[in-house]
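Need residues for this backbone.
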């Protein structure tokens, strides 16, 4: 059976679409043919520095063309790219540097000193390893130590329940998964994807970069840039596919000039559940479908994903159907973990196509894969056609039963108010809920009005004890709502 790997796919695409743009940032761009040559040169440089197959090469830099070239070069050299958040503090870095344990870390110049202080063995300049400007004459013979069973990348979970876990994915699994994602999106070689999430979050890799490599599409890197600049890049490059987390998606569709000549044909969300109101905003304002995806870092892809043909069902909160690269289903929470009938709430399990290890945490891996299946910790329900709706976490089950609903239902109710731009609900730690929201520009709603609005559609026991308006919703480095920070703030207010 043919088992793909991403470098074989990349070389094939470079042959077919060599003159097509591949990567675009604010400073530079490269075609597929240029990227092929530049990454061969960089791979040879890594090998000259002593990088052996199976070694980890760390990367720590803001999103840019050179960062992706470095990652592809590491693949060609047979190495495992370890993705480090370029915004990590000096206090947080030692844990990640020690866990990655890379003989070489390629980083932006401004991160060199803090990485060395955190214990990095050898730090090199990313721009020197993978310069965007290069000559075809300098490229060596093709370097290829990569194969289907090679580890593809090391990324980290958010660490909301303990130290972040390093997730290692295999090339064949992620290559197959992202081929399915490209197909569900209907990607073509003339598409341009606007990638708004940072590379270390891994969503950009599975939702933008690798699907593009399968088809010859281009990727414009805009993570961390203001929404107005994202729109400018989208219009300048006629971006056709928008890839973003829910908060950024809401920001983009609510921009003042969003309806003025939008270039997108489709948008894709991931990272956390998406409020139906945001999907409706995309349809009414931009005239496009906003597809939802459901996955985890441990997947290297998605368990379920929407399609433009889903229609009203997508607008009612259903993610979509499972993708064909893995067996995922809603099951009972106790052994033997059998699939449940449609309409019954259970945990989402994955029977194959998931990650092979947590970095340096075999006990956590054994717990997560009890019975030979991946336990996602997510509660969901499937309809008779296989569409999945994610409701919450398994540790919410008892409180949801007592309150008559999940936090996600309350958040969806808050988002349904026309004055709300962003909303989040957290447990204060004393059994009570705290709500937070950011109002849309030019709109106003008081906390009491918002609670009353939500109370029209959710049980009274599910309503928050407090509701706080924020100037701006706090975010993690990847652009998700900082729920841990909000929970700490809510807990502190009760002391």
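Answer:
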């Amino acid at each position: 059976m043919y088992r793909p790997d991403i470098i074989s796919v990349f070389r094939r695409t470079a042959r077919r679409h060599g003159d097509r743009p591949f990567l675009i940032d604010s400073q530079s761009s490269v075609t597929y043919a240029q990227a092929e040559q530049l990454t061969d040169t960089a791979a040879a440089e890594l090998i000259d520095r002593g990088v052996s197959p199976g070694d980890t090469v760390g990367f720590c830099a803001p999103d840019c063309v050179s960062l992706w070239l470095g990652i592809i070069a590491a693949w060609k050299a047979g190495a495992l790219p370890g993705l480090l958040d370029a915004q990590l503090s000096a206090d947080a870095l030692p844990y990640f540097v020690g866990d990655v344990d890379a003989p070489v870390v390629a980083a932006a110049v401004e991160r060199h000193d803090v990485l060395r202080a955190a214990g990095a063995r050898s730090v090199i300049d990313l721009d020197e390893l993978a310069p965007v400007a290069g000559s075809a004459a300098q490229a060596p013979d093709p370097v290829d130590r990569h194969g289907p069973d090679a580890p593809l990348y090391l990324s980290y979970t958010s660490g909301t329940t303990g130290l972040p876990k390093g997730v290692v994915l295999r090339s064949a699994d992620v290559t197959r998964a992202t081929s399915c994602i490209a197909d569900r999106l209907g990607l073509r070689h003339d598409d341009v994807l606007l990638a708004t999430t940072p590379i270390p979050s891994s969503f950009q890799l599975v939702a933008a970069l690798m699907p593009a490599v399968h088809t010859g599409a281009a990727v414009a890197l805009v993570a961390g840039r203001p929404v107005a600049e994202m729109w400018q890049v989208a219009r300048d490059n006629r971006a056709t596919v928008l890839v973003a987390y829910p908060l950024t998606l809401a920001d983009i569709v609510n921009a003042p000039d969003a309806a003025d000549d939008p270039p997108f044909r489709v948008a894709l969300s991931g990272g956390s559940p998406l409020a139906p109101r945001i999907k409706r905003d995309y349809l009414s304002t931009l005239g496009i479908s906003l597809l939802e995806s459901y996955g985890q870092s441990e997947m290297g892809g998605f368990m379920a994903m929407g399609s433009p043909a889903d229609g009203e069902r997508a607008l009612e909160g259903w993610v979509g159907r499972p993708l064909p690269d893995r067996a995922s289903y809603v099951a009972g929470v106790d052994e033997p973990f059998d699939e449940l009938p449609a309409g019954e709430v259970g945990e989402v399990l994955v029977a194959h196509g998931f990650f092979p290890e947590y970095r340096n945490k075999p006990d956590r891996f054994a717990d997560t894969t009890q019975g030979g299946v991946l336990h996602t910790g997510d509660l969901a329900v499937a309809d008779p056609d296989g569409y999945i709706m994610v409701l919450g976490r398994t540790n919410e089950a008892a409180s949801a039963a007592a309150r008559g609903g999940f936090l996600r239902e309350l958040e969806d109710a808050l988002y349904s108010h026309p004055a709300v731009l962003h909303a989040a609900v957290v447990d204060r730690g004393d059994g009570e809920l705290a709500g937070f929201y950011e109002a849309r520009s030019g709109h106003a709603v008081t906390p009491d009005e918002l609670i009353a609005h939500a109370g029209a559609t959710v049980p009274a026991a599910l309503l928050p004890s407090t509701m706080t308006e924020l100037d701006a919703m706090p975010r993690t480095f990847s652009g998700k709502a900082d729920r841990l920070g909000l929970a700490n703030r809510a807990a502190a207010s009760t002391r």
